[in-house]
Specification:
This protein is mostly beta strands and 227 residues long. Helices cover 12% and strands 42% of the residues.
Length: 227
Amino acid sequence: MCNLYSSTTTQEAMRQLFAVRPEQDHLGNAASQPSIYPKYTAPVVRLTEQGARELVPMHWGFLMPQTSKKTGKPILPKAINNARDDKLQSSSFWRGSFNDRRCLAPASSFAEAKGRNPATYFWFGLTADDPADRPPFAFAAIWRHWRGEIKGEPFEADTYSIITTTPNELVRPFHPDRMPVILAPSDYETWLTGYTDTAADLLKPYPSERMRIVRQGQSATADSLGG
């Protein structure tokens, strides 16, 4: 699972990493985000209709309308923030986005909670020579546009969901079932533009030897160094 992550890379560094031209950066003056939760807005890299890469803000979680069991009236939509790799082609909920709307979710770390009252948060990132460094990376993700009502008011937004797969040896002790799919930079183009079967081949655990625990504690907020 992935219910909390950080994206503390500067916009300029994101443009360089994801080969996004300045005129295709639509984030505005984006601030560092040490804690991103479902239903929050975060940067996403996707393709324009002309095939260029662009940086855009998106709402984390595919929205699913809900009604109250007591009153039968609409309540706040549920945010489906993760998509299982083994459901992408078998479920109609995910299939269209996986086939036609794949994207990248920039990140610098992600968290898994262990225990309760209080929980301990373990933040995972990539290896680096300097322990203070948080090398940027990208989750495999998909997106779609949602239009509906929230609290009786019309609402529409582009939304994204992060793909999860089986955990590697580093993550498994903290979440035995799932971890987000981290893509190598050499695979970004294949994920964004490749055939469905080719993209599906990228959905596997990231090598544990290329990852590390960058922070742990009872705070659900990444540290100022980009945890």
